[in-house]
């Protein structure tokens, strides 16, 4: 079982139920303890970061999107699909049973619609259905718009949430259309083949999650249909490399080494912290006891995204934000170093 809590931000959730969705995908229904329940409010499309006992004795961090919706009253649920030869997914599917506890970071991520009030185009492949289902259920429960979901799988037996999707279409026949794409029947979903089914929906904001080739094909198809790139949102699944749960070591810094002050607005509070030139903003905040969001701490997941309101920063690495985000002042706190004496940041 997971080691005792070491990080300030992890919480222990109880596994209430394990549901075998398909031969190789399990859902875990989770319950947060009463005292930290407010840390587990979330937006559709967000994910949890699990702290699993690693094979090498160090914790292994794995992210799993919430397949539940925050707008339907259902409990927290993640869905994990086994990856051949993978450590974490098989550990979760083989080892966890009802009554176990899991140590996790609170929900994070930016793969979430700014508004649920508009028509949406959703595309998922395999386990990529998890955040997409959360968005679909939320839009149907909370919004008024229509939802088209194209869901690609190897074959019929690998379709996760088949019954839930059927029930949703029965409940919302005028608002939800689900198109299944089975590779066993239709071949690989290549861009030229996807253009026809996607064409009627190309003007909608799109949320795409699945294997890289599928996401590339969908983006290529949508762009060929005239969809602007900033309306196509992608969620990339990968395994975290670093031990993200280690307490950050923040260099003390001297005047000669530069650095300055960060004024950070988070959850309605303003925190003023000294910001040494060589320390990423996230490390500075965590070391100061500020409950700043994060997951990968390697510039890849966007969980730590915040916005520079005044001053300047540079990012060491960025595999998560696009040019438009950067032009709007967004930065990754886990990669941000100060370039000016004073920097104002907001997480709102
Ligand atoms: C934001 C986010 C959300 C996610 N949501 C979900 C979700 O909802 N559901 C879900 O199922 N997954 C999700 N993932 C993916 C998940 O976090 C894991 O990446 C996935 O479960 C695989 O982890 P693993 O430990 O089983 O595989 P890993 O051990 O990380 O291995 C991955 C692959 O690499 C190969 N490999 C591993 N080590 C080596 C090596 N030394 N040499 C060669 N090959 C190697 C393995 O054989 C395997 O094919 C998400 C990821 C992110 C970032
Ligand atoms: S924590 Fe993942 S990009 Fe910063």
SS-based class: alpha/beta
Indicate the CATH topology of the largest domain.
Rossmann fold
Q: Strand-residue fraction? A: 25-35%
Please report the number of helical segments.
8
Main β sheet profile: 6 strands, antiparallel
**CATH homologous superfamily name of the largest domain?**
Nucleotide-binding domain of ferredoxin-NADP reductase (FNR) module
> Helix content range of the residues, please?
10-25%
**Corresponding CATH architecture of the largest domain:** 3-Layer(aba) Sandwich
State the low-pLDDT regions, or none: 1-8
Mean pLDDT across residues: 92
Give every kind of bound small molecule, once each.
Answer: flavin-adenine dinucleotide, FE2/S2 (inorganic) cluster
**CATH class bucket of the largest domain:** Alpha Beta
Based on CA atoms alone, the radius of gyration comes out at 21 Å
How would you describe the shape? Answer: globular
Strand order of the largest sheet: 4-3-6-1-2-5
Number of domains: 3
Order of helices and strands: EEEEEHEEHEHEHHEHEEEHEEHEEE
N- and C-termini, Cα separation: 36 Å
Describe this structure in words.
This protein is of the alpha/beta class. It has three domains: 11-108, Translation factors (Elongation Factor Tu (Ef-tu), domain 3), CATH 2.40.30; 120-235, Nucleotide-binding domain of ferredoxin-NADP reductase (FNR) module (Rossmann fold, 3-Layer(aba) Sandwich); 255-346, Beta-grasp domain (Ubiquitin-like (UB roll), Roll). The protein is built from eight helices and 18 strands. The chain has a six-stranded antiparallel β-sheet with strand order 4-3-6-1-2-5, covered by helices on one side. The protein has a five-stranded parallel β-sheet with strand order 9-8-7-10-11, sandwiched between helices. The protein has a five-stranded mixed β-sheet with strand order 13-12-18-14-16. Helix 5 crosses helix 6 (212-224). Mean pLDDT is 92; it is low at 1-8. Residues 262-348 form the 2Fe-2S ferredoxin-type domain. Its cofactor is FAD.
